[in-house]
């Protein structure tokens, strides 16, 4: 046994496979221990310290999922991966949902085994466990549940789909899952799928070789290569065109990419977290999103609540945002009441913009309700159906149109061509609307 080397428990009843894995892991400088059943594995986990557990799915006295569930309850910080040859896709999803770090399919690829082990063991013993509480502000029951889910999701390698309205913090949640997980030492690459021109999306995702197309003057890696060993966050994944969805599905299945102009594929090791403000399920029904890709991405879903659904959190979030401001600003009581009564269609992002604007225009260090300059809201649900707005109809429609355009511009980082595509209008039409509404 190698002194101070990481210890791995391999659980399987096939002696040949155990010999092969022990030899492979030994050459990596790791210590390997064996168990042949669920009962033996649980007993050893109780009595000894391990850095990783690899378990077969089918065992003489039960299933590898029994070990995964036990560790989720009693040893949540200990990573576990499963090895399966029985209905690979279905069992793999079950294992990941139960808390497994990753999975291997039989016959076991030694390259994949080595990659999995390296990924599992490179994380520090004591990750920053308070990061979520520092960043996701709010004591509401909804946010407490979100924080609990993030802690669980960080322990696995399961693909996660984050759903929620624009501005609700989907990218922040993805970053926290990455920061808590065993890939925290690797890169976090965030991609806004709606901001990439359709003609360039394949080159941006997979990279290209010099001379692959006009303008390709040197080799360039894509998002998958840049995220190797870490996490690739696909924001607004629903905006990907169907042909690109097919290519993305193949990469997720094969874990290999081919650069444009390259003759060979290259292996990539990334965890996928996706997000969108749209309903992927409805897009699948409408034929705008592939069902097989949907199942690949939506293994586990994390739903972020809208800000209006947790008004009790608004004062704490506002004070947290104001603390970043150098002027030492704080909220007057009437400002707090006004914020709690506002619907925030743009969620936390809109709250941040409102406070930034108020801080810039306020005379003193205390923000009042008047300083916030909140837009008047539609009448309450109990009013007559015809009274939908306090404005004349055209003013009301202009406000809605302006908000939609500003949201599209923010999503595309002010790429007007991409924003027009996102809105479903021509570039010329968007330019006309920008001029008419006075949007710079």
Query: Numbering strands along the chain, what is their spatial order in the largest sheet?
Result: 2-1-3-6-7
- Number of DSSP strand runs: 16
Give the second-level CATH assignment, the architecture of the largest domain: 3-Layer(aba) Sandwich
Number of helices: 20
Measured between the Cα atoms of the first and last residue, the distance is 67 Å
Q: Write down the CATH topology of the largest domain.
A: Rossmann fold
The Rg value, from CA coordinates, equals 25 Å
Proportion of β residues? 5-15%
CATH-level-4 superfamily name of the largest domain: P-loop containing nucleotide triphosphate hydrolases
CATH class designation of the largest domain: Alpha Beta
Which stretches are poorly predicted, pLDDT < 50 over at least 5 residues? 123-134, 378-391
Mean pLDDT: 83
Task: Return the domain count.
Answer: 4
Give a short account of the largest sheet.
5 strands, parallel
Overall morphology:
globular
Structural class: alpha/beta
Q: Give the helix level as a range of percent.
A: 40-55%
Can you offer a commentary on this structure?
- By secondary structure, this protein is of the alpha/beta class.
- The protein folds into four domains: 115 residues, Rossmann fold, CATH 3.40.50; 163 residues, P-loop containing nucleotide triphosphate hydrolases (Rossmann fold, 3-Layer(aba) Sandwich), CATH 3.40.50; 64 residues, Orthogonal Bundle (Helicase, Ruva Protein, domain 3), CATH 1.10.8; 45 residues, Homeodomain-like (Arc Repressor Mutant, subunit A), CATH 1.10.10.60.
- It has 20 helices and 16 strands.
- A five-stranded parallel sheet has the order 2-1-3-6-7, sandwiched between helices. A five-stranded parallel sheet has the order 9-10-13-8-14. A two-stranded antiparallel ribbon has the order 4-5.
- Strand 1, helix 1 and strand 2 form a beta-alpha-beta unit.
- Helix 14 packs across helix 16.
- The protein is globular, with a radius of gyration of 25 Å.
- About 6% of the residues have low confidence.
């Amino acid at each position: 046994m190698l002194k101070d080397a990481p210890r791995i428990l391999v659980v399987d009843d096939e002696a040949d496979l155990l010999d092969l894995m022990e030899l492979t892991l030994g050459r990596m400088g790791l210590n390997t221990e064996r168990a042949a059943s669920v009962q033996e594995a649980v007993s050893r986990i109780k009595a000894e310290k391990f850095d990783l557990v690899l378990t077969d799915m089918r065992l003489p006295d039960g299933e590898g999922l029994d070990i995964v569930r036990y560790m989720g309850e009693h040893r949540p910080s200990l990573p576990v991966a499963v090895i399966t040859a029985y209905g690979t896709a279905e069992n793999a999803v079950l294992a990941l949902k139960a808390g497994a770090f990753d999975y291997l399919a039989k016959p076991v690829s030694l390259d994949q085994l080595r990659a999995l082990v390296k990924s599992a063991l490179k994380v520090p013993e004591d990750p920053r466990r308070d990061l979520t509480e520092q960043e996701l502000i709010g004591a509401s029951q909804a946010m407490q549940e979100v924080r609990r889910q993030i802690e669980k999701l960080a322990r696995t390698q399961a693909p996660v789909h984050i759903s929620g309205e624009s501005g609700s913090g989907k990218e922040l949640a993805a970053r926290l899952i990455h920061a808590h997980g065993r890939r925290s030492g690797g890169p976090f690459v965030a991609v806004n799928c709606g901001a990439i021109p359709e003609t360039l999306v394949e080159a941006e995702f997979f990279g290209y070789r010099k001379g692959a197309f006009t303008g390709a003057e040197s080799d360039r890696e894509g998002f998958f290569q840049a995220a190797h060993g870490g996490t690739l966050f696909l924001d607004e994944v629903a905006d990907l065109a169907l042909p690109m969805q097919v290519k993305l599905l193949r990469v997720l299945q094969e874990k290999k990419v081919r650069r444009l102009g390259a003759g060979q594929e290259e292996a990539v090791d990334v965890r996928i977290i996706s997000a969108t403000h749209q309903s992927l399920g409805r897009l699948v029904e409408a034929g705008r999103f592939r069902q097989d890709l949907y199942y690949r991405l939506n293994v586990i879903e994390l739903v972020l609540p809208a800000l209006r659904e947790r008004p009790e959190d608004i004062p704490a979030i506002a004070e947290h945002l104001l603390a970043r401001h150098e002027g030492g600003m704080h909220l007057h009581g009437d400002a707090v009441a006004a914020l709690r009564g506002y619907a925030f269609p743009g969620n936390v992002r809109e709250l941040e913009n409102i406070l930034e604007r108020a801080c810039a225009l306020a005379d003193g260090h205390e923000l009042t309700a008047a300083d916030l300059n909140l837009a008047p809201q539609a009448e309450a649900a109990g009013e007559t159906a015809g009274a939908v707005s306090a404005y004349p109809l055209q003013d009301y429609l202009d406000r809605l149109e302006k908000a939609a355009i500003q949201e599209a511009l923010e999503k595309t980082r002010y790429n007007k061509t991409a924003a027009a595509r996102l809105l479903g209008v021509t570039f010329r039409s968007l330019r006309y609307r920008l001029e008419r509404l006075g949007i710079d």
